[in-house]
Each structure stands twice: as structure tokens, then as C-alpha cells.
Design a protein that fits this description.
The complex is a heterodimer of chains A (331) and B (324). Chain A is of the alpha/beta class. Chain A has helices at 49-57, 84-90, 102-105, 112-123, 128-141, 147-150, 160-172, 190-207, 218-224, 242-247, 252-258, 262-265, 304-308, 327-330; strands at 7-18, 21-33, 38-42, 65-74, 77-78, 95-98, 178-182, 210-214, 227-232, 235-241, 314-315, 321-322. The chains are: A alpha/beta (331), B mainly alpha (324).
């Protein structure tokens, strides 16, 4: 028997109330992640990646959004049922998060060291001095030169890459069981991106933290993750080992995403196939939750059945799951 | 850091000098001079006596020399002589200044603390009942004229329910030590301070609410929540410190308005400060006193602006260290 996953989400449904009624922005989402594993969430903007992160953090925007059903088990404890006080003790301690915008995600009026130390004082029962010293160690661990000096620097005195390193130090300070990185490098330039990913890899190896990586960059997925989940319109459309999914996608949306990236599918040759795109856009929120395949409007394989019935998740080999009526025709 | 502060102080000094020079020319442009006033009080004088008086007071000197003398006089604390009150203006002002400063500073601090508190409360639940109440209160405080508010408070809390004294700053019949005296002054201070604070409280609470709402929606607040901090810590430590800058800036700018508002409030409550003095000296056409008041209020405003600047530096490191 394999060990229990560190985080297990089952049948999660998150609803948002909009002017045109309640819509499920996450619809029957299930996944799990083991300690030390990296799981990537991919998909376009608005498909529910970030909402998944917020749900796990217990930060679904209130009162517009709510967790309608399902469970989120962290080391066995269902986070959807714990009181807010307990959730606060989990947040930043057992589960923590790195956000997309390092430029604005740090509080401008506190020093980098203070923002890291605050977490330690809150969760690890550390005194002011101990927390500050540990914050300096964390800054050193995320590769900031002169950590003792930089601890007293304010965010506006740092570059974007440094700020993201501070965010990572803050998120990892309490050695969380699960770290969620929501597009951690979108706002950074390419060389810094590579450094940040190297750093995340190293830290994960050292701490055994499970990493949930949210991205829309298939290149990053191939580089970083062992497993991936493809999200579309609030639903999981494909789930499997990265190598399997990239080699043999079972959902037309996944295939579309892969063929957007030049070097993933093809070996580099003289002949450069044209890059393709997935035509069309994600359906409006009002259509979320309908009993149909929400990708139908953009799918080359769609037929009447796709428009009338939601495809169930089907298994293809070890741990490879896809929700498509025409999965066999995809690759 | 030290350099910028010194720079600010130097600018403030220049500004005050400009006020003094302006004062001099206003004094000069006003019809009649000291000789006329003295002659008038003597019941008339011939041209020769007038010349002598003018010579005595240095009024026959060239303009630039008079200006120089006036400026050195002011710098040495000599603002001229009030013929109406028959005392040197400086003495008169120093006697009245503490009362005004007490009223103005109390009102400003009251408006700031309560305003910020109400702003924070209403920003936490922007559509809640408390928020609507604060909006209503702010609208009322802002639109009601101060003298009306003052008279209403007097009617309610001094006449109908006599909890507070009707006028003045202290009870002349009171005996007892300094403590009893202090309590007495505080007792007299309540209504005028509330009256003067009401209009600014409205302003500060609205600005604080808007500023808090903006800050609460920012990324670093989400970061603070993701750290597992309690709502109180998020609101006070992470949001308020950021939201405070615009409120402090406005409070600094509004301080001159508080000082001029004090004129009305002091009149309503017979508060023995610069405001009532200003009114009296305007009616009596006592130019030296009016200009003295002008000088003192600009001094107060300039000093407060300096303090505002320091406070902003304390709150926001981006001002302290220079924006990157």
C-alpha cells in the first residue's frame, strides 16, 4: 500500500455568486499529491487554477464565493470543516503560498526580514530575536546575497527577482507540508525565471515539501513537475504523469496547449512546424456547470453527444485520466 | 535624511520671512499710522508734533530701513504695539496662544483618532450597517456649519441637560491645586473641541474609509492573510499603516483650516484664544494685532507641516529612503 497522500481533494465544488446567479468555478475537482511531489496545474486564465489554490488555503473570497461541497484533506484533516481559528493556524504553517506578483505581494512599509519573521513568530512560537535570526537564515537559503543586510531592506529597495525570493523564504519559513506557487515567475524576466525554478527545485529536495505549481506555461511543466492536471472552465479535463500526458494527450484541449509550445512535441529539426493555437475563448461563467463538455465550442472533434452530456473521467493506463468522449481519437 | 530635514526647516524659515515681509507691506498700506493713532488719543495734534512722533517711531526713515527694522523686530519677538489693548502685541498673543493651541490640537487629535477608527470600522464591512451609519454621520458633520453645531451642542448639553459649562475656559471661582484646574479646563474644552472636530472628523473618516478599502484589496493583504494572521492583525498592522499616509497628509494640509475654524468656535464658546482676539482686533481695526495673529498662525501651520512631514517619513519607508 502506498503512503497516504499529504493532500487529498475530493469532489470539490466552489461556487461564486454573480449577477446572473450562482456558478461553479470549480466543479467536482478531485486530486491528490504526495509529500515531495510536484503537481502542475495548467490551463488558460479563468479556468480555476488560482481558485483551487485559494480553496486549499481557505481563502475563497468571502462572501462572493464559497465551498459548496467536497473535502480538502491535509494529512487526514478536512480543511473544509475546521473552524477559522484552526484554519489560520494551518495557513502559512502547513500550507503556504507564493503569489504571482512579487512587485505588489510584499507589504511596502515593513522590511523583508520582518515580513518573514512575522510568520515564524505567529506559528513557531519564536521570540523576536530568534525569528529575526531565522529570517536571515531563510534569506540565505533562498540565495539572497548579504542576507543580514538585506533583511533590513524594504521591498522597494529590491528587484523583482529578489522580492520573489523573499516571498519564497516567507512561504517556506515554517517548513510547510504543501507549497502552492501561483505563476511564481510570470512577472519576472526569463533569466530570473530559470533561477527561481532552480531554487524551488533545490528547496523541495531539501525540505520534502509537496509543490503545487500553477502555470499556463507548458515548458515550465515539463521542466518542473512529475504530474500535471489540465483544467478547463472549472473542471479537470486531464490528469497524469507529465511524460505520459505530453507524449499522448487524451484531451483535445491538452493537445492544443502542447502544440502551442515549439519544442515540446517535436524533436528539433530543420523543418519547423507551424505553431498552432487553440481557437476561440473559454465560455462565459454563466455556462459553467452545464451538463455538457464545456470545450465543445472550441473542439475539432465535438459532436452532438459532447453538447448534451458531460463526459465522465476515464482511465488510460497508470494514473492517466481524461474527461473526453473522444479520448481515443485525440493522439 | 538629516539633510532633507534641515532643508525643510530652511524652507520653512524662508516662508516665515516672506510672511513677515508681506505683513510689513500690509501694515504700511493700511490707512493711517501710529502717529495718527496717538494724535487721535491725545485729542488732536499740530503738524510739528506729528513730525516729532513720526521721528520717534522711525516713520520718517526710508522704506527699506523701516522694513529692516520691522523684520529684526519680529525676529527678536517684537510684533509692535497694540494701541487698542494697550500692550505689546507679542505679550497679548503669547497670553492667548495656549488656549487656541489647546483647542486646535485637541480637536485635530480627536478628529484624527475617531475619524480613522470610524474609517477602519466602515471599511471592514463596506456594506454593513456601521458603514452606512458612518457615511451618514460624515455627511452630517461635513455639511453642518461649525457655529450651528456649536450652538446646538450648547443648547443640548449646557441648557437642556446641563453637563457642560456654557462658555469660557475655566471657572474663575474655582479653588484648589493645578489638578482641579486642569480638570476644570478639560471640562470646558469638551464642547468646543467636539464642535471643531466634527467637520474634520467627517473628512478624515471618509478618506480613511476609501484608503482602507483600496489597501484591503491589495496583494500584500492577501499575502498577510495567507500567513495565517488574524483579521485584526491584517487590518491594523498590514492595512492601516499603509492607509494612514493620505489621511496624515490631508490632516497636515487641513490644519490651517482647523485654525481658521477655531475663530468661529472660539466666538461661539467665548474661548479666550487667538480667534476671539482676531475678531476683536478686526472690529477695532487694530492692525498690529491682526498681523501678529497672521504671523503666529502661519508659524503654527508651518510647524505643523514640518511635523506632518516627519510623521509621513515614520509611516512610509519609501519617503524615508527615497523611492527606487
Amino acid at each position: 500500500m502506498p503512503p497516504d497522500p499529504i493532500l487529498e481533494v475530493k469532489g470539490l465544488r466552489v461556487e461564486l455568486s454573480t449577477r446572473s446567479g450562482t456558478v461553479p468555478v470549480l466543479d467536482d475537482l478531485s486530486f491528490s499529491i504526495d509529500a515531495g511531489e510536484t503537481l502542475a496545474f495548467v490551463g488558460e486564465s479563468g479556468c480555476g487554477k488560482s481558485m483551487t489554490a485559494l480553496a486549499v488555503m481557505g481563502l475563497v473570497p468571502h462572501p462572493i464565493g464559497r465551498i459548496a461541497s467536497g473535502s480538502i484533506r491535509l494529512a487526514g484533516e478536512d480543511l473544509t470543516r475546521v473552524p477559522e481559528k484552526r484554519m489560520r493556524a494551518v495557513r502559512g504553517n502547513d500550507v503556504s503560498m507564493i503569489f504571482q506578483e512579487p512587485m505588489t505581494a510584499l507589504n511596502p512599509v515593513y522590511t523583508a526580514g520582518e515580513q518573514i519573521a512575522e510568520s515564524l513568530r505567529r506559528h513557531q512560537d519564536m521570540g523576536r530575536r530568534a525569528a529575526w535570526e531565522h529570517a536571515i537564515e531563510m534569506l540565505a537559503a533562498v540565495g539572497i546575497p548579504d542576507p543580514r543586510g538585506r533583511a533590513s531592506a524594504y521591498p522597494h529597495q529590491m528587484s523583482g527577482g529578489q522580492r520573489q525570493r523573499v516571498m519564497i523564504a516567507m512561504a517556506l519559513a515554517c517548513r510547510p507540508k504543501v507549497l502552492i506557487a501561483d505563476e511564481p515567475t510570470t512577472a519576472l524576466d526569463v533569466t530570473v525565471q530559470a533561477q527561481i525554478f532552480e531554487l524551488l527545485k533545490d528547496l523541495r529536495r531539501e525540505t520534502g515539501t509537496a509543490l503545487i505549481l500553477i502555470t499556463h506555461d507548458m515548458g515550465v511543466v515539463a521542466e518542473m513537475a512529475e504530474r500535471m492536471i489540465v483544467m478547463y472552465a472549472g473542471r479537470k479535463v486531464e490528469d497524469g504523469m507529465v511524460t505520459d500526458v505530453i507524449a499522448e494527450p487524451k484531451h483535445p484541449y491538452t493537445r492544443g496547449l502542447i502544440s502551442c509550445v515549439p519544442h515540446l512535441a517535436e524533436v528539433l529539426t530543420e523543418e519547423r512546424p507551424d505553431l498552432t493555437e487553440v481557437p476561440g475563448v473559454v465560455p462565459p461563467l454563466t455556462q459553467f456547470g452545464r451538463d455538457m463538455c464545456l470545450f465543445s465550442s472550441r473542439c475539432p472533434l465535438a459532436d452532438d453527444k459532447c453538447w448534451e452530456e458531460r463526459p465522465p473521467e476515464r482511465r488510460f493506463g497508470a494514473g492517466h485520466v481524461a474527461a473526453c468522449w473522444h479520448a481515443e481519437e485525440v493522439s | 535624511m538629516m539633510f532633507t530635514i534641515l532643508q525643510k526647516v530652511a524652507y520653512s524659515g524662508l516662508l516665515l520671512l516672506a510672511v513677515i515681509v508681506l505683513n510689513f507691506f500690509l501694515l504700511h498700506a493700511a490707512p493711517g499710522d501710529v502717529a495718527d493713532t496717538i494724535a487721535q488719543s491725545m485729542g488732536g495734534a499740530d503738524a510739528e508734533t506729528m513730525e516729532r512722533i513720526r521721528a520717534d517711531y522711525g516713520l520718517d526713515l526710508p522704506l527699506w530701513q523701516q522694513l529692516l527694522e520691522y523684520v529684526t523686530g519680529v525676529l527678536h519677538g517684537d510684533l509692535g504695539y497694540s494701541f487698542f489693548f494697550n500692550v505689546p502685541v507679542t505679550e497679548l498673543l503669547l497670553e492667548r496662544l495656549p488656549a487656541t493651541l489647546l483647542l486646535v490640537i485637541t480637536a485635530q487629535l480627536l478628529a484624527l483618532t475617531v475619524g480613522v477608527l470610524l474609517g477602519v470600522i466602515s471599511a471592514r464591512r463596506p456594506n454593513g450597517l456601521a458603514s452606512h451609519f458612518v457615511t451618514l454621520l460624515a455627511l452630517f458633520g461635513y455639511s453642518a456649519p461649525v457655529f450651528w453645531t456649536g450652538i446646538m451642542l450648547l443648547i443640548v448639553f449646557s441648557l437642556m441637560v446641563p453637563i457642560f459649562p456654557v462658555a469660557g475656559m475655566s471657572d474663575a471661582t474655582l479653588t484648589g491645586g493645578w489638578w482641579a484646574h486642569a480638570v476644570d479646563v478639560a471640562h470646558h474644552l469638551v464642547l468646543p473641541a467636539i464642535t471643531l472636530a466634527s467637520i474634520f472628523l467627517a473628512l478624515y473618516s471618509r478618506l480613511c474609509r476609501a484608503s482602507m478599502l483600496e489597501v484591503l484589496g491589495s496583494d500584500y493583504i492577501r499575502t498577510a492573510k495567507a500567513k495565517g494572521l488574524s483579521e485584526g492583525q491584517v487590518v491594523v498592522k498590514h492595512a492601516l499603516k499603509n492607509a494612514l499616509s493620505p489621511v496624515v497628509t490631508l490632516a497636515g494640509l487641513q490644519f490651517s483650516a482647523v485654525v481658521s475654524g477655531a475663530v468661529l468656535v472660539e466666538t461661539v464658546f467665548s474661548w479666550p484664544g487667538l480667534g476671539t482676539l482676531a475678531l476683536q482686533s478686526i472690529i477695532a481695526r487694530d492692525t498690529p494685532t491682526i498681523l501678529g495673529i497672521l504671523f503666529f498662525s502661519s508659524l503654527v501651520v508651518v510647524v505643523v507641516n514640518l511635523i506632518t512631514d516627519m510623521v509621513l517619513r515614520l509611516i512610509d519607508p519609501r519617503i524615508r529612503t527615497g523611492v527606487a
